[in-house]
């Protein structure tokens, strides 16, 4: 995980609603996380209202792609909160603990990738759906997914 803290923090910013703070941080984001330059460049040249409308269409419409990891795998949001608390972190704000940007911030602060790896299949489905829809957000999830260690082979040996 070493070296991915900045990427996770930057990806969390990219995957939240693109308000004024997001736009102000674009130059820093572009330099701090080269893996996200494609998205940062797109966001920099897109009119703020258009970018915000696209975010809502992609992530919050009825046929949108969920940033809530429990949607992709049956897991109680309480599991997320328990892990945050065990590291001395508490969520503030309105988002639920399984919100991908919150998970990315947790991972950036603690170095603990367990929530990302436990939800690898959901991240893959999210990544694939975003790529199929042609949204620039696909490159953000792709960059995060690329940092995950290979999936463990869960096959059981013959005779067991």
UniProtKB/TrEMBL annotation:
InterPro entries attached to this UniProt entry: DMSO/NO3_reduct_chaperone, NO3_reductase_chaperone_NarJ, TorD-like_sf
Coiled-coil zones: none
Keyword flag Nucleotidyltransferase: no
The entry's keywords: Nitrate assimilation
Origin: domain of life: Bacteria
Protein name: Molecular chaperone TorD family protein
Source organism: Streptomyces coeruleorubidus
């Amino acid at each position: 995980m070493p070296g991915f803290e900045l990427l996770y923090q930057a990806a969390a910013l990219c995957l939240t609603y693109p308000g004024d703070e997001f736009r102000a941080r674009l130059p820093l984001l572009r330099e701090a996380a080269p893996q996200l330059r494609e998205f940062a460049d797109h966001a920099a040249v897109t009119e703020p209202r258009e970018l915000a409308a696209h975010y809502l269409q992609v992530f919050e419409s009825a046929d949108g792609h969920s940033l809530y990891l429990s949607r992709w795998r049956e897991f109680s949001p309480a599991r997320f909160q328990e892990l945050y608390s065990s590291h001395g972190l508490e969520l503030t704000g309105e988002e639920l603990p399984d919100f991908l940007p919150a998970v990315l911030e947790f991972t950036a602060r603690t170095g603990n990738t367990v929530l990302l790896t436990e939800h690898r299949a959901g991240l893959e489905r999210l990544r694939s759906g975003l790529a199929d829809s042609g949204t620039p957000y696909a490159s953000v999830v792709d960059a995060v997914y690329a940092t995950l260690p290979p999936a463990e082979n869960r096959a059981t040996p013959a005779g067991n």
